[in-house]
Specification:
Layout (H helix, E strand, L loop, with lengths): L13 H30 L5 H12 L6 H18 L2 H14 L4 H13 L3 H14 L4 H40 L4 E2 L4 H4 L5 E2 L5 E9 L4 E9 L4 H6 L31 E7 L7 H9 L32 E4 L6 H5 L6 E2 L3 E6 L5 H5 L11
Parallel strand pairs: 1-7, 3-8
Antiparallel strand pairs: 2-3, 3-4, 5-6, 5-8
Helix pairs in contact: 1-2, 2-3, 3-4, 3-5, 4-5, 5-6, 5-7, 6-7, 7-10
Length: 375
């Protein structure tokens, strides 16, 4: 019997030929029935989509249909995979259908849809153009062509925004490295939000600076403290840049929390906490600078790990008393930030205390520490 003939052998007798013809006819009939049954399953709804795929697959596996017929089966299976959200499988099926029959408009349409779902816009564009060559007036393909062009424009704009954000962040990191500054993890995000330094066209860094009044841990922010500015200039002008007018003015009403009336301009001193925190690697600094930008999702920044900061800068995390370093008001911000024991917690933080405050002695002797150390 022809059923058991070895692979590659040819039928010789009329009986063998008749048997093979009968088998082929039976398989062809089975394939057509499976195709129609698959179509019925699709019409029955989502619960039967997997049954439809099974029918189309079994019909293809009969291996007796013509290329054009098999192209329809692959295109039908692509359609069901699209409905199920199996976009990669849908694209594979659509591409197989196109190979078998390059003029199969439904297969081209489904290749476009699958490619768009996978964000393969170049491929989607190519399939759409091939479809429109076959059917120039096809409204669905023309709509998809417009959607593809719009998506590509949006992607190009987004990529441009990412490139710009990365370039800005890398410029700031390079400036920080050139200045031998050490950046650590944020300590006061709840007060500052996501504030970052800015590098101007003259390669000068502008920092947002947090001022903390140690006695009561209230705060103010200087939004733009140029690295070349002296502290005295900002303290002299602080009434115009903070939320409490005329602070430190001799004639102003004391702040609600300044019960001792100790915070006059001549009485205040400025300090930073030495060696507080751990220096971040270049990659970690880049990630911080890209937060809130188009590049916030990026995980890789090239060969940046070789620039990682290997030295650790221990401070309050060690459990010891903090070390306060007094800032000479006549110094510039940069001259203080570059101190070897300064670790900037994302943005510079300075503590203000009054010499005539009852808190001053404890602060100076190291008995005072930020509230989080008492938790």
């Amino acid at each position: 019997m022809a059923l058991w003939m070895e692979k590659g052998s040819e039928p010789h007798t009329e009986t063998e030929i008749a048997d093979l013809d009968a088998i082929t006819a039976l398989k062809h009939s089975t394939a057509i029935e499976l195709k129609e049954k698959g179509n019925e399953y699709v019409k029955m709804g989502k619960k039967h989509y997997t049954d439809a795929i099974d029918c189309y697959t079994r019909a293809i596996n009969q291996k007796v249909l013509s290329d054009s017929e098999n192209s329809v089966l692959f295109a039908n299976r692509a359609h069901v995979n699209l409905l199920l959200g199996n976009y990669r499988r849908a694209l594979t099926d659509a591409e197989e259908a196109i190979k078998l029959c390059p003029t199969n408009i439904k297969a081209l349409y489904r290749a476009v849809k699958a490619s768009m779902s996978l964000n393969l816009l170049s491929e989607a564009k190519q399939y759409c153009e091939k479809g429109l060559q076959q059917s120039p007036e096809n409204d669905e393909l023309r709509k998809l062509a417009k959607q593809i062009d719009l998506r590509r424009s949006e992607c190009e704009r987004h990529e441009s925004q990412i490139s710009k954000a990365v370039a800005v962040a890398e410029g700031i990191v390079s400036a920080i490295e050139d200045r031998n500054l050490k950046i650590g993890k944020a300590s006061f995000r709840e007060l500052t939000g996501l504030k970052k330094p800015v590098l101007d066209e003259d390669n000068i860094l502008h920092w947002p600076v947090l001022l903390l009044y140690a006695e009561v841990m209230t705060s103010d922010i200087i939004e733009d403290f140029c690295e070349t500015d002296m502290f005295s200039a900002h303290l002299d002008m602080i009434s115009s840049v903070i939320y409490l007018p005329n602070m430190f003015s001799e004639s102003c009403t004391p702040l609600p929390w300044d019960k001792e009336k100790a915070y006059s301009r001549d009485a205040v001193e400025l300090y930073y906490e030495a060696g507080s925190g751990v220096g971040l690697s270049r990659k970690e600094i880049l990630r911080y600078l890209l937060e809130g930008t188009a590049g916030s999702h990026l995980e890789s920044f090239g060969d940046d790990e070789k620039h990682a900061s290997d030295s650790l800068h221990h401070g309050t995390s060690t459990g010891r008393s903090p070390k306060w370093v007094k800032v000479n008001e006549k110094r510039t911000l940069y001259s203080v930030l570059k101190e070897p024991d300064m670790v900037i917690p994302e943005i510079p933080v300075f503590f203000i205390v009054s010499r005539i405050s009852s808190c001053y002695k404890d602060f100076r002797t190291g008995k005072w520490s930020p509230p989080w150390l008492h938790d």
